Structures are given as C-alpha cells and as structure tokens.
C-alpha cells in the first residue's frame, strides 16, 4: 500500500501541477486567458476517456505489474516534455497526450485492490491508496511552489518549466521499480505465509463466486447498464469538486491579494493551499474505516458530497482569508471522504472482466467532469469577472450527484464480512 500511494502521489501531482504553473508565470508567458487555461487543464481527460476501458481490460489480461509500468513510463516522458511547451497549442497537445498516457492507471489500481482486499475492507484500502490525492495536493503544492520559486533560471528555464521537468522524472524511474517490485496476485506473494496466501485466495474466490451467482453481470452488461451511467454521474459530481479545487484553489489564494490586501510569497501560497488537503486526508481514512466497520455505504457517500457541495460556493462570500479557507477545507473534507466509499460500490455487483471494464467505464465517464470543471469554471470567470459563478456550478453539481447516489445506493447490498483468518501450524 505505501508503494501504491507513492505511485498515485506522483500520478496526481503530474496531473494537477498545471494548476500551480498557471498563476506562477505560465499563463503570462504563453498568453493564456482563464478559458484557455481551463481548456488546457481539462483536455487531459478527453485522452483519458478514450482509452480507459481497453487499458483496464489489458491490465486484467496481462497483469498489473507489466501494464502499470508501461503506463508510468509513457506518462513520465510526456510530463517531462511539458517543460518545453512554447505556445498554447503545444501545451494543449501535450496535456491531451498526457491523458492518453495515463489512461487506465487509476481504475487499474482500483481493480488491482479487488484482487487483494475482501469487500468488507475495501473502502479502507481504497482510502489508504487515495490518501495520496490530498497528500499530493498538500505536499505537492508546497514542493511545486518551492520548485517554481527556486528553479527560476536553472538550466535557463522559467520556474514553472523547471517544476514540470523535475516532477515528471519520478514516474520514469518508478516505472522500472514497478516492473520488478509489484506482485500481481496473492497466490504469487512470497512475502505472505502459505496459510495467509491460501486464506486470502480462498476468501476472494468465494466472494467472486457469490457475486457472480447473485448478480451475474457479464462484460457487455457492465458497459451498457443504466446503473453504470448513474454511478458515473455520481463520480462526476465528486471529481467536479476535486478538480475545481485542484486547478483553481491556487488561483483563488492568489486573488486574496486583490480581495483582502494580503501579500503571500509563492512558497506561502503553497503552504496555505496544503491545509484543506491535510485535513481531508485524515477525514478520508477515518470515514472509510467507519464505513467498513458498519457495512453502510450509501450515506457514507451522500453525506460528505452534500457537505462539499454546500461549502464550496459559500467560501467566496466570506469576509477574510481565514473564513474562506475554513469553508474550502469543509469542501475538501467532503470530496475526500466520499471518494473511497464510492469505489467500494461497483465491486458489490461486479467481478472479473466485468469489474475491469465497469470500473474503467465509471472512471472514464465520471472524469469528463475533469474536463468540464476547469473549462466551465474558467469560462464563467471570464464571462462574469468573478470566481463565484464557477463555484456555484461546482456546488450544484455535487448536490445533484448526491441525490443520484442516494437512489443508486438504496439498491446495493451492504458489504459482507469474510471468515476471519486463523493461523495454522505446519500440520494443518
């Protein structure tokens, strides 16, 4: 799990570091308006959408170790080349190619976790993995700020270019580590005892057979059923809030100077940006553990979505930077807490190839909001001259998606508890 968190930390940072580059020199150097910046940020998800399902099916067939290493190598190369974008068109093309290269990474990990964790422990497992999102946003914002300010002029590059260069290289290195380090399935895990391997494999196989007997969702059904579209819409609502924060929170903090007369350095802005995500990471793990312990899924998705949806537009009507950041933190907590329990829902009725295709479909369709969020938010900012309209759109989308989650969640069974592992001696 720590290794998977590291991979996702690097993945998410390379995905959203454009949010730090924009207000710190990139927009001015490349001549980007808010709408153009939003388009460049969001075009990533179009390439991501196209290849999600085939990529996850390939992972299911060839194994996580090989396929994740391939994904990381290609995205690391593209992320590094972004340091040399010299006009808006080149930036947009590279962001699109970054999405193509990364396609399948996140749903591949979600699928991979179903190979290792029983259903009753899956939300906690996903939370531990996805804690890399708020940690990446927290630590990454500070690191990105330091790289931008400290990298100005290094190798003759602007600070934001130096940041892209440095933050793209770890993915290339970790691709080779993944190839030799990751274990595809429990039965191949030499670091488990024979009894542990047998118990885990037997438990997961029993769950798979029970799921197939109860629901019997073949791949075709998993790619066409209305329930999948509903879950994709719910996920779109969650990620709408996630990416709106990721791409525009640095811009909102930069706007404190004009709104409240503050004067923060780039490094200080990075630290302020980190606060909501640090608290969100803690809330994510604790909330997911509570959901696993109770077996309840529906309200563990709906309640935090409502919190986040109501908090984000309120943030822009408050009278101080502190009050604004408190409201933003509530939004971050809501978004982070909803994510891991949401990903425990599809595996309650999907398994095998259907799980591979279905999880990828939900992620790819849901991540359309990754394109819509920065583009619509930027467009509304240019149209109205204020961030308020865009944040209201974020809040409305999250609240509506929460209502859909309430309906869909009512039709899903609670997580089953597996038989406990009982260690045995060599004689059995």
Give the secondary structure arrangement, pairings included:
Layout: H1 2-16, H2 18-21, H3 26-30, H4 34-42, H5 44-62, H6 64-81, H7 88-102, H8 105-114, H9 122-130, H10 132-150, H11 159-181, H12 194-215, H13 219-224, H14 226-254, H15 256-260, H16 266-294, H17 298-314, H18 321-344, H19 352-366, H20 368-384, H21 388-409
Helix pairs in contact: 1-10, 1-11, 4-7, 4-20, 5-6, 5-7, 5-8, 5-19, 5-20, 6-7, 6-8, 6-11, 8-19, 9-16, 9-18, 10-11, 10-16, 14-16, 14-18, 14-19, 14-20, 14-21, 16-18, 17-18, 17-21, 20-21
Query: For the CA atoms, what is the radius of gyration?
Result: 21 Å
CATH homologous superfamily - what is it? MFS general substrate transporter like domains
CATH architectural name: Up-down Bundle
> How many β strands by DSSP?
0
| Net shape | globular
**Overall mean pLDDT:** 85
Q: Assign the structural class, choosing from mainly alpha, mainly beta, alpha/beta, alpha+beta, or little secondary structure.
A: mainly alpha
- From the N-terminal CA to the C-terminal CA, the straight-line distance is 30 Å
Strand content: under 5%
CATH level 1 name: Mainly Alpha
Q: What number of domains?
A: 1
> Approximately how much helix is present in the residues?
over 70%
Order of helices and strands: HHHHHHHHHHHHHHHHHHHHH
GO molecular function: transmembrane transporter activity
Membrane topology: Multi-pass membrane protein
Organism: Amycolatopsis antarctica
Keywords: Membrane, Transmembrane, Transmembrane helix, Transport
């Amino acid at each position: 799990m720590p290794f998977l968190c590291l991979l996702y930390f690097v993945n998410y940072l390379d995905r959203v570091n454009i949010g730090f580059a924009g207000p710190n020199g990139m927009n001015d150097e490349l001549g980007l308006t808010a709408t153009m910046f939003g388009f460049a940020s969001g075009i990533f998800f179009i390439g991501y959408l196209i290849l999600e399902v085939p990529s996850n099916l390939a992972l299911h067939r060839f194994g996580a170790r090989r396929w994740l290493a391939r994904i990381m190598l290609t995205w690391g190369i593209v992320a590094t080349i972004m340091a040399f974008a010299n006009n808006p068109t080149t930036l947009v093309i590279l962001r699109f190619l970054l999405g193509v290269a990364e396609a399948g990474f996140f749903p591949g990990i979600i699928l991979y976790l179903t190979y290792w964790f029983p259903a009753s422990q899956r939300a906690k497992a996903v939370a531990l993995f996805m804690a890399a999102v708020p940690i990446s946003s927290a630590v990454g914002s500070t690191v990105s700020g330091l790289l931008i300010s400290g990298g100005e002029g290094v190798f003759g590059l602007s600070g934001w270019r130096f940041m892209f260069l440095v933050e793209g290289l770890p993915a290339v290195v970790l691709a080779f580590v993944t190839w030799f380090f990751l274990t595809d399935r429990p039965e191949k895990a030499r670091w488990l005892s024979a009894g542990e391997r047998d118990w885990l494999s037997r438990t997961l196989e029993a769950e798979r057979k029970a799921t197939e007997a109860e629901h019997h969702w073949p791949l075709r059904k998993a790619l066409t059923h209305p329930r999948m579209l509903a879950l994709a819409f719910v996920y779109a609502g969650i990620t709408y809030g996630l990416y709106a924060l990721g791409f525009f929170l640095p811009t909102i903090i930069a706007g404190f100077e004009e709104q409240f007369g503050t004067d923060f350095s780039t490094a200080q802005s990075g630290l302020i940006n980190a606060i909501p995500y640090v608290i969100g990471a803690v809330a994510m793990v604790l909330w997911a553990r509570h959901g696993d312990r109770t077996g309840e899924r529906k309200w563990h998705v709906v309640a935090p979505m409502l919190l986040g949806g109501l908090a984000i537009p309120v943030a822009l009507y408050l009278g101080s930077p502190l009050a604004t950041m408190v409201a933003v933190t509530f939004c971050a907590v809501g978004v982070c807490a909803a994510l891991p329990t949401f990903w425990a829902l599809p595996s309650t009725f999907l398994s095998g190839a259907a799980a591979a295709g279905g999880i990828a479909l939900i992620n790819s369709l849901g991540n359309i909001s990754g394109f819509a969020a920065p583009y619509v938010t930027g467009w509304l900012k240019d149209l109205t001259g204020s961030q308020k309209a865009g944040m209201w759109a974020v809040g409305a989308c999250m609240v509506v998606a929460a209502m859909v989650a309430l309906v869909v969640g009512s039709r899903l069974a609670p997580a089953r508890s597996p038989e406990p592992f009982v260690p045995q001696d060599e004689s059995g």
